[in-house]
Amino acid sequence: MRTKQDYINRLSKMKRNLYFDGQLIDRTDELQMRCLNTIGTTYDEAAKPENQELMTAISHLTGERINRFNHIHQNTIDLHNKQDMTRMLCQKVGGCIQRCMGTDATNAIYNVSFEADKANNGATQYHENFKKWLTRFQKEDLIGCCAQTDVKGDRMLRPADQPNPGAYVHIKERLKDGIVVEGCKVHISEASVADEVLVVPTRALREQDKDYAVAFAVPGDWDGLKQVVTIHNLREREHFPRGFMPGSTDSYMIFENCFVPWERVFLAGEWQHGGVNALLFALFHRHSYSGCKPAIGDVILGTAALAAECNNIQKAEHVRKKLAEIIMVTELGYAAGYTASDLGGPQVFMPGKGFVPYGPGSYIPHSIYCNVGRCLSGEAVWHESEILCDLAGGVVATFPHEKDFVNPETKDALLKYTKRSSKISVEDQAQFWRFLGDALCSATGGIRNIGAYHGGGSPIMEQIAITTQYDIESRKKLVKYIAGMSGGDREALAKSNFIKRPKKDR
Ligand SMILES: Cc1cc2nc3c(=O)[nH]c(=O)nc-3n(C[C@H](O)[C@H](O)[C@H](O)COP(=O)(O)OP(=O)(O)OC[C@H]3O[C@@H](n4cnc5c(N)ncnc54)[C@H](O)[C@@H]3O)c2cc1C
Questions:
Q1: Residue 256 CB-density burial (10 A; 0-12 exposed, 13-18 middle, 19+ buried)
Q2: Cα separation of 389 and 397, whole Å?
Q3: How many A from CA of 228 to the centre of ligand 1?
Q4: Going by C-beta distance under 8 Å and a sequence separation of 6 or more, which residues neighbour residue 5?
Q5: Residue owning the nearest CA to atom 16 of ligand 1
Q6: What does the pLDDT look like over 86-130, one tens digit per residue?
Q7: Rounded to an integer, what is the distance from CA 377 to the centroid of its chain?
Q8: Which atom of ligand 1 is nearest to the CA of 250?
Q9: pLDDT in tens, 242-300
Q10: 286-468 architecture in CATH?
Q11: Residue ranges covered by each domain of the chain
């Protein structure tokens, strides 16, 4: 497995195709270093013997030990470990660990490429191509990102109906040795620090959208690909450093006449499978969210409790209520992911059919619990910021910059007037308000909230998944029975195949 330094060294050799604020920049530009340190934590932690079980796995392709982020889930234990690894790492960096998009895209494509080949009766080799690509990805311990979200143009028009065909990434031309793709994917996290970009469709597709049913992987600096990056760094500290300084990036990925050889293509025109690919990436990603959002909840809870202590209001009744709210959302999100792992299996939910076997045998988390957990905890993001705002008061918005705390003309007065609680040193109180200002009042803090709300799909997407997949009919039949109406069925839920409990629990 690689070290963080190996990862950075490899990025430093990649071609320059990153545009930031009007300039072409290197991947190892100083601006990207905070982000590299964050994602680099996944290498540092995987190398520690005490993290071996949680952070590494045995590849089912090669039998070699690999980083768990590059693993295809083989059983429910893998799903549990992925969730717990994500929570543990996100706690360490105080937010998004940034490597899960590759995990979730590889797991989705692994299954969909298999099913597409099966439906094509052997006329395509998507799955074999993907396994070859994946073997190298695992052996070289590479970082993948997932480019799913298209610019989408007019939201009320489907892909083939858009006046600009590039509103969704699509196959422009089919050649003997590959395809040519065109279009733009947006908001793609960590694409500027990824070795490989996995491209998957955004939404359900119709037959006339078949050119939009395309999945492939290319290196981040591939010919025909430009990235316009936004880099999210906090205000630098000179005198009062944070314990960990995170960073992240998102890219607009512009594909122009971009040639992709067949061995890197995993879906090309199978429109029914394109929609499943979109849903499956979202599903795996919502499962990852059940690890990261609880970690963010851990940080928010600690922050809220410290804000209350700095203000010496920790015993107030409204503080208890707000801390309880944060804990409830955090642990319900975690519990939903835990259940999704426990009920996972080589199956997906197909409307009208219930759960059906899917893929070559790898494990897929339970869809309802992934969606319920993501929606519940994703929608809570702004309310949690409101709690922090309430408990902190206005200080967080107007706290003086750090140099005023070292300037002899202002330092002593500022410390004197920063002091609130007598139980925490005033230096620590000042350091806490700086930290909370980073979270609540910076551009990066705002971007994080929007990412936590929309990333993995806006709440409406989870609500659609939940209501189309949940067996509402069997509940209606049960109520009809209880109410004494016609068409009632006392056993309706027992007959439903909505939840298949693992044998051990029966
Ligand atoms: C910080 C951040 C990081 C992200 N990282 C990634 C990433 O790594 N990879 C990736 O692929 N994506 C990523 N995303 C994208 C994320 O998944 C999308 O933002 C999300 O799916 C919403 O899509 P959208 O932004 O196009 O908003 P829209 O879908 O345009 O939503 C805007 C509004 O329009 C409504 N709407 C949209 N379509 C319709 C319709 N047909 N009918 C009625 N109402 C409609 C929505 O419900 C919503 O209210 C990221 C986003 C953010 C903010």
A1: middle
A2: 9
A3: 18
A4: none
A5: 455
A6: 999 999 999 999 999 999 999 999 999 999 999 999 999 999 999
A7: 13
A8: 3
A9: 999 999 999 999 999 999 999 999 999 999 999 999 999 999 999 999 999 999 999 99
A10: Up-down Bundle (1.20)
A11: 4-277, 286-468, 471-505
